[in-house]
Amino acid sequence: MRIHTDAFAEGETIPVRFAENAAHGQNIHPDLSWSEAPEGTQSFALTVFDPDAPTGSGFWHWIAFDIPASIASIGEGEDLPGGVREWVNDYGYEGYGGPCPPEGRVHRYIHTVHALSCEKLDVPAEATQAQARFAIFANQIDSVSLTGRFQLASDGA
């Protein structure tokens, strides 16, 4: 599989507009496109994960799934297609939550597209975020990631 965004290159800085409001951003997700999904792909999931968050277990910024196999891109800040489910991120709300690390240290944000072997994940509404992620990984047949970096300036800008 391949993944691309016009917003930043692998290992490059994520523009501030994609950051959380508290980091002076607009909290919009970057454009993402993917290709070369394996045979048997019936749907996709998207996740954004910060392994550098000082939580002992990282920080999940976005968990979305039940994206139809016919979809291969989303535009910058664009609503996801109807029927796509977004789960509660570690900020505590559903949908995309942009970077907002503590001042000083650079954090990595791993944007992953997961090719899934089912059209819909059987995740009940009351399931925890960990259970939703378990369902993604249990049905994953391939994935591809793109990592951007973000650092909150010491002056807060």
What does this structure look like?
By secondary structure, the protein is mainly β. It contains 1 helix and 8 strands. The protein is globular, with a radius of gyration of 15 Å. The model has no long low-confidence stretch (mean pLDDT 95).
Walk me through the topology.
Elements (H helix, E strand, L loop, with lengths): L1 E3 L27 E4 L7 E8 L8 E10 L4 E2 L10 E2 L20 E10 L12 H10 L1 E11 L7
Antiparallel strand pairs: 1-2, 2-5, 3-4, 3-7, 4-6, 7-8
Distance between the termini: 36 Å
- Order of secondary-structure elements: EEEEEEEHE
Radius of gyration: 15 Å
Could you say which overall geometry the principal axes of the C-alpha atoms support?
A: globular
DSSP strand content: 25-35%
Main sheet: which strands, in order across? 6-4-3-7-8
Low-confidence stretches: none
Total count of helical runs of at least 4 residues: 1
- Mind describing the biggest β-sheet? 5 strands, antiparallel
Q: Bin the helical content.
A: under 10%
**How much is the average pLDDT?**
95
Strand-pairing-aware structural class: mainly beta
Please give the number of β-strands. 8
